[in-house]
Design a protein that fits this description.
Blueprint: E1 13-16, H1 21-33, E2 37-41, H2 55-66, E3 69-70, E4 75-82, E5 85-92, E6 100-101, E7 107-110, E8 113-116, H3 119-130, H4 149-163, H5 171-178, H6 189-195, E9 208-213, E10 227-233, H7 237-252, E11 253-259, E12 262-267, H8 271-284, E13 294-298, E14 302-308, H9 329-337, H10 347-357, E15 364-368, E16 371-377, H11 394-406, E17 409-410, H12 411-417, H13 423-435, E18 439-442, E19 449-452
Parallel strand pairs: 1-2, 9-13
Antiparallel strand pairs: 2-5, 3-6, 4-5, 7-8, 9-10, 11-12, 13-14, 14-16, 15-16, 17-19, 18-19
Helix pairs in contact: 1-2, 6-9, 7-8, 8-10
Length: about 450
Amino acid sequence: MTDSLKMKPGQLVALLPEAEAEALAETMVAFANADGGMLYVGVDARGKPTGALFSEEFDVVIHQAETQCRPPIPVEWQQLEVGGEFVFGGRIRRSPELHTLADGRVLVRTGAANRPLRGHEVRQLATTRSAGDYEVEDVPGATRADLDEALLAEFTKKWEQRHGGVLLRPLDELLAEMGWLTAEGQPTVAGLLLLGTNPQAFLPRSGLILVRFEGTEMRGEGGAPGYGRRVEVNGPLPSIIARTWEVLQEEIRSGAVVHSLRREDKWLYPPAAIREALVNAVAHRDYRLHGRGIEVRLFTDRLEVSSPGALPGFITVDNIVDEHFSRNPRIVNGLFLWQYIEELGLGVDLMIEEMVNAGHPPPEFRETPFSFTVTFRRSQVYRPPQGKRLTTNERQAKALAYLQQQERITNREYQQLCPNVSTETLRLDLADLVSQGVLLKVGAKRGTYYILK
């Protein structure tokens, strides 16, 4: 028995100190509409039991919460003992349906909060739901024998490390719970992609192509192909990430220096940002689209990571920093167990922060109906003061990108970049960049403008 739950609130975990019907219903709907998650009742934000929970009362409140969810949401409840007190834990799975509360609100889990969606976001989410849950569909022709035994052993080891104990139940039972096998023991799309010996034999173009071009365009002189290296990477997703990352490190490492016998690699782009873009592309691409795979394109002035499929759910280019929604939660869960994903929802923030701190413009995000592309551009215009780390939000990143091109920015120009944000919030954004030593404020009152320091 432990004194507290060893977890904190987040994208997949909610901690409620009391059994309150409305809060329960809101969290159930938010989890079901997003990636699912674990809901613990009777613990505070630190995971400490509150002692304010009784079984008889809990049953009544749960029934009240369930009647507020439309359509009903199944929850797998279990009673736990933490620090000598009763705590209830419930698993809510991602639902193929769109769920609302009795008052019509639609909520999704965003970080550690339940966020109501606006009208157009609800329509986008409903469209996503109508497309079905492709990753848990069985793969025609594939059998249990098409899963790689070495990968299964590796997965079992990582699962045991993550959960701090030996797997005691049958492995296939766990694989079915993860959504990687059907009830009949046939591999699903997610299971084959993560654990298959040769997934591309059943799911064409589910791999990756990396191409290095000799200039800034895809074509060379006279219209001839302009690439100097082309690598096609296939296999299960963990292997695709590992192999592609090996090649990328060769391409973006620009040299090394030695300080006091310690070697320090130099990079064309910050490795953490590029690796995050690679993992995101593998985790979130639309595997229903078989016409093309993920493409990593290296030019002399930029690096592009392009994945098939538009942004999922209610995610847009404008809210991509603040929101999180997985098209493939079972694949994401697998990559999380393989430790390719450290924490859900922080990837875009990391890419922006790493690029800006390395002296480059923030990454650019471009969406079409059938693809999503992240572009990293090289630049030496700005470097943060030595020894400091720059922290920016999405709005500030837009301002810095604007300054890379225009060299100065006024309050009015910043408002045009972020039209739905209050002037006071934008003023504080600029003041924060000044305090971090990034911007220099010039002039006063209406004549004020900002330049890179």
